[in-house]
């Protein structure tokens, strides 16, 4: 960490012009090397645990997960949102998403929420013996109720220290969205597709507007073990990144 901090300081001293770092300097390369050293240490630790008699009979997969969480919890203060402009980009991203408050499910061609809303109004109409037509608007209370689980999963991300746990939050969000999509169908046994998942992910992020999105994305991209991304987690992370970039294209750099 001390070596990395010295490298960062040298990069900023020689490379910052007009408030922006010069292109082509080694900041990202330093982060890449540092992440590799963390992964190498974890692999070394897991080999030592596997050969230690004290761990005989233990479930090594669970043990590896706990070890990884412990290491990243200790290093989190040095790894997360440490670049000089992270805070300003996080704030700008929140402001950008807040400015899209006018965005509705119809703008994203999301039929799921409209169908759930119609069903709820039908139940209300039956209970009150009213013959009024469906209200086409969506109240904040209705959206908060429908999207409670996926939004809650995304908001939990800011409380996680380990990339593995942040990925789990994204997975929980996607699973909750998939369940909503299934519930809104006439045939609830059919599975939703990617063309339905992405718009719902975009709308969920817009509704809850979690903090530190920029820093969370950098943290996941830098410190998630490559083996974890050759799976469902990698697919869901790609969808999440795409949804965030849809809402704030200025994050692409």
User: Reading side by side through the largest sheet, how are the strands ordered?
Assistant: 1-2
Order of helices and strands: HEEHHHHHHHHHH
Number of helices: 11
Q: pLDDT average, as an integer? A: 80
**Structural class, from secondary structure content?**
mainly alpha
Low-confidence segments: 14-26, 129-136
Secondary structure tally: strands: 2
Euclidean distance between termini CA atoms: 26 Å
Instruction: Summarize the biggest pleated sheet.
Output: 2 strands, antiparallel
Report the β-strand fraction as a percent range: under 5%
List the quaternary state of the chains. single chain
Radius of gyration: 22 Å
- The percent range for helix content is 55-70%
Overall 3D shape: globular
Question: What report would you give on this structure?
Answer:
By secondary structure, this protein is mainly alpha-helical. 66% of the residues lie in helices and 2% in strands. The protein contains eleven helices and two strands. Strands 1-2 form a two-stranded antiparallel sheet. A hairpin with a 2-residue loop joins strand 1 (16-17) and strand 2 (20-21). Helix 2 (27-50) runs antiparallel to helix 3, helix 7 packs antiparallel against helix 8 (163-183) and helix 7 crosses helix 9 (194-208). Residues 14-26 and 129-136 have low confidence and may be disordered.
Features:
two-stranded antiparallel sheet, 2 strands, single chain, mainly alpha, 253 residues
Q: How is the topology of this model organized?
A:
Elements: H1 2-15, E1 16-17, E2 20-21, H2 27-50, H3 60-79, H4 86-98, H5 111-128, H6 140-146, H7 148-156, H8 163-183, H9 194-208, H10 213-223, H11 232-247
Antiparallel strand pairs: 1-2
